[in-house]
Structure formats: structure tokens, C-alpha cells
């Protein structure tokens, strides 16, 4: 595996080795990820691309600790996730990973402020509401703190979701088509927020997208096909021989 020289000085933020994933039961069981090996450096931004059904969301779920692989090794932020139980995975996510989904996934009965603050409170942060307010102000929603998700536009809801993901200051940010439900201008604003927060905090970013222009803003694109890495290419550089 050829490490990317720009990111190889420290241990990788994400190290996947021969990762396997099958989901569903009986006749509906699908072999989704087939031997994925991939290192992602600290502070690196990777665009995960590939056809529909190629396993992009599934791979994101595995490295975010939302889905347990059933083969291979998944080391994220120095922790081996393979074999962890649900409680340990939840603790791992709370400490290390911020997640943004296409469909926002806000809690409808909580205000914007509560959506961001409650996970911080659960993680034991005494300054949960203060931090949440600061984070929402940072994404331009300081004037919408007490609105419920149904009272916010799609772009505003995604801003809340971005604030929620960023508030615990995670080392790793993952986003699954975060602009997929938004118009182009709003989507670009969301991307600016995600990329600028990533750069400012030196976080590692893995973003699934169908938008090639967006993928090109990353340091590297990784292309999946049928559950395998087809290509791993540095942006503005040569194709890296990183795909196992
Ligand atoms: N819970 C599940 N049970 C069975 N099969 C599943 C499950 N989740 C996903 N799959 C299958 O795994 C394959 C990969 O799905 P995945 O959602 O990872 O693809 P994707 O690359 O994100 O596609 P898209 O671009 O359409 O979002 C698909 O064929 C899908 O049908
Ligand atoms: Mg998907």
C-alpha cells in the first residue's frame, strides 16, 4: 500500500484491512463489502464515489461504527472496532465521530438548540447548551435556536445537523450525500461549512457523493464498484496504488 506522503507522518486516522460486510438474512442476504483495504490519514479529506449499490453508504457505516463488519480489521482513531459490542460502539461514536446524513435525521420534538445540545449533555459536557449555541451561530443559525425541525428549511435543517456533528469536536467527520436533498446553491453552502470546519479543526473527512465536482475538492477520491475498491486517486496527482 502506497501511503500518501502528505498524510503519512502520523498513524492513519482510519485503517481498514480486508473488511467484509454482509447484511440481511436468508435469501435476502447480500455480500456488500468484499475485502476493502484502505488507509486514510489524519486531516485527509476523501471523497467516496461509485455507482448506486456499490457499497458507499455501507462502508461509511462501518467506519463510523454504525455497522459491525463481519470480517477484517477496522481501526478508527486508534481503536479496533471489529468485535466491539453496541454500547462500546456508541461510546466510540460519541467521542470520535461526527455524522451527517442526506436526510438530516434531526429529532422532530426537539428545537435546533436541543438537537445539538442533548448529545453533548449525554456525553457529560457541562457546557452543552453553551457549546450548542456557539456551534449553531457558527453555521449561521444563531437566530433559529428555538425553532423545531419542521419550522426550518431543508438547508437550515442540514446546518443544524452539521452543527450537531461538529459540536463534540470529533477527529473524524463522515457525511453521506449531505447535499443530496438540497438545491445546488444551498448544497454548496453546506459543503463550504463542512470543508471549512474540517480544515479549521484538522479533522479527517470521508464524504460520499455523486457530485464529481464536490469529490474533486477532496484530497483523494476512492471509487467503489460492487463492494470493492476500483480506484484510489489523489486529486491533482497520479492515481495512488492505495487500493488493495
Ligand atoms: N440492510 C441490508 N440488507 C440487505 N442488503 C442491503 C442492506 N443495506 C444495503 N444492502 C445492499 O447493499 C448494497 C450496497 O448498498 P449501499 O447502500 O451501501 O450502496 P450505495 O453505494 O450507498 O448506493 P447509493 O449510491 O444508491 O446510495 C445494495 O445492493 C443494497 O441493496
Ligand atoms: Mg448510499
TrEMBL record:
InterPro entries: AAA+_ATPase, ABC_transporter-like_ATP-bd, ABC_transporter-like_CS, ABC_transpr_LolD-like, MacB-like_ATP-bd, P-loop_NTPase
GO cellular component terms listed in the entry, alphabetical order: membrane protein complex; plasma membrane
Superkingdom to which the source organism belongs: Bacteria
Sequence ranges assigned to domain ABC transporter in this UniProt record: 14-244
UniProt similarity note: Belongs to the ABC transporter superfamily. Macrolide exporter (TC 3.A.1.122) family.
Species: Ancylobacter defluvii
Keywords linked to the UniProt accession: ATP-binding, Cell inner membrane, Cell membrane, Membrane, Nucleotide-binding, Translocase, Transport
Keyword set includes Cell inner membrane: yes
Keyword Membrane: yes
Name of the protein this chain belongs to: ABC transporter ATP-binding protein
MF terms in GO: ATP binding; ATP hydrolysis activity; transmembrane transporter activity
Pfam family, one: ABC_tran
PROSITE patterns the record matches: ABC_TRANSPORTER_1, ABC_TRANSPORTER_2
